[in-house]
TrEMBL record:
Entry GO CC: membrane
Residue ranges that the Swiss-Prot or TrEMBL entry lists as coiled coil: none
Name of the protein in its database record: DOMON domain-containing protein
Keywords tagged on the record: Electron transport, Membrane, Transmembrane, Transmembrane helix, Transport
Origin: domain of life: Eukaryota
Transmembrane spans: 248-273, 285-309, 315-338, 350-369, 381-402
Cellular location(s): Membrane
Taxonomic source organism: Tolypocladium capitatum
Length: 429
């Protein structure tokens, strides 16, 4: 066996060998970095891509995320966490998100500026259509990523025992907000003014599952792309806007004009003018206005989910329905008066029935102001107008009483002509 020889090109120099090793190590490092990036991206996707989001207003947005383990349980029995986010500009005084289909009994989470470039999260309980009251909850936590940045308030929230949630299907939610100067309060019991608008919607939390039980919003800041005011979000259904301030004002002002001003003026027309045609025409106009106000109120209450479940709406239905009989009583009274030249039982029914309904209507207006959480200045104005109306009515009643008394002393049988619309000497309602 001959000697074995090696050519120089068959054996690489040590420098070449080391260079090859460096390339291999560098390639391995790049591959490891790529794998890590892919793993992170995959994890981020698992955490955040399934969150549901909804924006009831263009700049007011919410997001939800439910860990897969909790979602599989199918209930909010307190065995798992639920994450949600509130986001709005600092041009809002406060923004609230609540669990429920109406304000009464809703678990609410209210966000407002704290004054130190941070936000305050106030857990509250709805007690009706008034300011919700603070309730301490140890299962609710304000998470990392919350605060104020670039003029945006953000509250990332974890709820550990939101037992009323259905994690396997739709759950009713409500939202409310008010634009204005920041509250700048760290108190969770801060007084908040009545909302300018709010909304009802439902969220299918089964479609908001996330891969891990961790804050999903750290990777999705400012990315509310899954929903809109039309309810097109992932698992979000818009159940319609609830009463906004315009509708509330329209209903309140119209019904105030009807019961505090309109009906009392129509009633005093009889002792002051004595013309039944003018009286009947005026009251019929006010009667139509009452039903217009009732229609607005029905739309508001029905959207809010509290129609006929509180004293104001129940009393309003009864008063308006019973007032429907008043034109009939008025016509029967008129016919009786024409025939007998005086009052009968139907006359007293018409008069006192109308008076009672006017009084109840005025009281119910006050209940409506309370239900709406109306600012004190409007309540004061309502009381003032109602007091003036009552004074006017009592004065007209006294005037009519003495006028009729003098008339009876001078002419025991005061006549009237139903054709000409001449005077009926009595107070009507």
């Amino acid at each position: 066996m001959g000697p074995v020889s090696f050519s120089s090109h068959h054996i690489a120099s040590p420098r070449v060998l080391l260079h090859g090793v460096d390339d291999t190590i560098q390639t391995m490092r790049l591959t490891a970095k790529t794998a890590t990036a892919v793993a992170i991206a995959t994890n981020v996707a698992r955490v955040s891509c399934a969150t549901s989001s909804y924006c009831p207003a263009s700049d007011v947005c919410f997001q939800w995320g439910v860990p897969e383990a909790a979602a599989r349980s199918g209930s909010g029995s307190g065995s798992g966490n639920v994450y949600f986010q509130l986001k709005a500009p600092t041009t809002y005084e406060w923004v609230g998100l609540g669990i429920g289909t109406q304000m009464r009994g809703a678990d609410m989470f209210v966000m407002y500026a704290s004054g130190n470039n941070n936000v305050t999260l106030s857990t509250r309980r709805g007690v009706g259509h008034v300011m919700p009251l603070h309730v301490q909850r140890n299962d609710v936590e304000l998470l990392e990523g919350s605060g104020i940045s670039d003029g945006q308030m953000t509250a990332n929230v974890r709820c550990g025992a939101c037992t009323e949630l259905n994690l396997a299907g739709p759950t009713g939610w409500l939202a409310a907000w008010l634009q204005g100067s920041p509250l700048n309060s760290e108190s969770t019991s801060a007084t908040i003014s009545v909302h300018e608008a709010y909304n009802l919607f439902s969220v299918d939390l089964a479609k908001a599952s996330i891969g891990s039980d961790a804050n999903p919003f750290l990777t999705t800041q400012g990315n509310n792309t899954g929903g809109s005011g039309n309810g097109n979000g992932n698992g979000v259904t818009d159940n319609g806007g609830l009463p906004n301030q315009t509708l509330a004002y329209a209903h309140g002002i119209l019904m105030t004009l009807v019961f505090v001003v309109g009906y009392p003026i129509g009633s005093v027309m009889m002792p002051l003018i004595g013309n039944w045609i003018i009286h009947a025409s005026w009251q019929m106009l006010v009667f139509l206005g009452m039903w217009a106000g009732f229609g607005i109120g029905y739309v508001m209450a029905n959207r809010a989910g509290w129609f006929f479940i509180n004293t104001h709406t129940q009393l309003g239905v009864f008063v308006c329905a019973l007032m429907g009989l008043q034109p009939v009583f008025g016509w029967l009274h008129h016919v009786y008066y024409v025939k007998h030249r005086g009052r009968g039982i139907i006359s007293h029914i018409h008069i006192w029935y109308g008076r009672a309904l006017i009084i109840i209507g005025i009281v119910n207006g006050g209940l409506g102001l309370q239900l709406a959480g109306t600012p004190q200045r409007f309540c004061t104005a309502y009381i003032a107008v109602a007091s003036l109306s009552t004074l006017m009515y009592v004065s007209a009643f006294v005037f009519g009483f003495f006028k009729n008394r003098r008339s009876r002393m001078g002419d025991p049988s005061p006549g009237m002509s139903d054709r000409s619309g001449a005077k009926e000497q009595q107070v009507s309602a």
